[in-house]
């Protein structure tokens, strides 16, 4: 498990503990977390969200209308539209289980897209009935860009090894170096 996923899981645990607080304390506790996290009721209506949700989604969630997700539009990792009623949070509520190891693409109202890893986690009342769920949204856009650039560099190197044309070999080698440099630039802490 990656360090970021372990960190996200620890934040989910903190948010679950915060659910025992009153509404004002819950809002404060969620805002103190450094990632987007929100709470829904058992039907998926969003009841609380933190400021990081607004930054991630590029919009302010509408507590009266938004269900299952704070994002404007969702897509699968392959780019197919993903209705909110079928998103990981909706599945977690419907099946009353945590959902892990999935990714989605969120589109903001301005058209920009980010890749995210959700951590929808149902929670239950003392009698065992579903009380709602929390969801942490981990932005993995940069990691996926780095993965793509590194894969392109490796592909160029593989192609270069099978070519006898010196110019093509040099061009592919330069491209590999450029892809790696772009990945290094993204990976450098800002």
A few lines on this structure:
The chain contains 6 helices and 7 strands, in the order H-H-E-E-H-E-H-E-E-E-E-H-H.
Task: Give an account of the 3D structure.
It is a single chain. The chain is an alpha+beta fold and 190 residues long. The chain is built from 6 helices and 7 strands. It has helices at 3-18, 23-32, 51-57, 88-95, 141-161, 166-187; strands spanning 36-40, 46-49, 73-76, 104-107, 113-118, 121-124, 130-139. Strands 1, 2, 3, 4, 5, 6 and 7 form a 7-stranded antiparallel β-sheet that branches. The longest helix has 22 residues, at 166-187. The model has no long low-confidence stretch (mean pLDDT 90).
Average residue-wise pLDDT = 90
Radius of gyration: 20 Å
Structural class determined from secondary elements: alpha+beta
Total helical elements: 6
State the main characteristics.
alpha+beta, single chain, 19% strand, 6 helices
What layout of secondary structure does this protein have?
Layout: H1 3-18, H2 23-32, E1 36-40, E2 46-49, H3 51-57, E3 73-76, H4 88-95, E4 104-107, E5 113-118, E6 121-124, E7 130-139, H5 141-161, H6 166-187
Antiparallel strand pairs: 1-2, 1-7, 3-4, 4-5, 5-7, 6-7
Helix pairs in contact: 5-6
């Amino acid at each position: 498990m990656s360090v970021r996923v372990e960190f996200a899981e620890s934040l989910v645990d903190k948010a679950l503990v915060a659910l025992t607080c009153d509404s004002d304390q819950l809002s404060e506790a969620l805002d103190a977390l450094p990632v987007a996290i929100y709470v829904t009721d058992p039907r998926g209506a969003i009841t609380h969200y933190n400021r990081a949700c607004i930054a991630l989604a590029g919009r302010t969630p509408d507590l009266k209308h938004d269900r299952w997700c704070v994002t404007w539009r969702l897509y699968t990792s392959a780019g197919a539209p993903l209705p909110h009623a079928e998103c990981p949070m909706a599945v977690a509520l419907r099946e009353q289980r945590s959902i892990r190891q999935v990714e989605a693409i969120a589109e903001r109202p301005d058209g920009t897209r980010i890749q995210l890893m959700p951590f929808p986690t149902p929670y239950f009342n003392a009698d065992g009935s579903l009380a709602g769920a929390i969801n942490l949204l981990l932005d993995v856009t940069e990691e996926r860009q780095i993965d793509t650039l590194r894969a392109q560099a490796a592909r160029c190197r593989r192609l270069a090894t099978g070519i006898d044309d010196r110019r093509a070999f040099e061009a592919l080698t330069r491209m590999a170096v450029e892809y790696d440099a772009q990945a290094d630039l993204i990976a450098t802490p800002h």
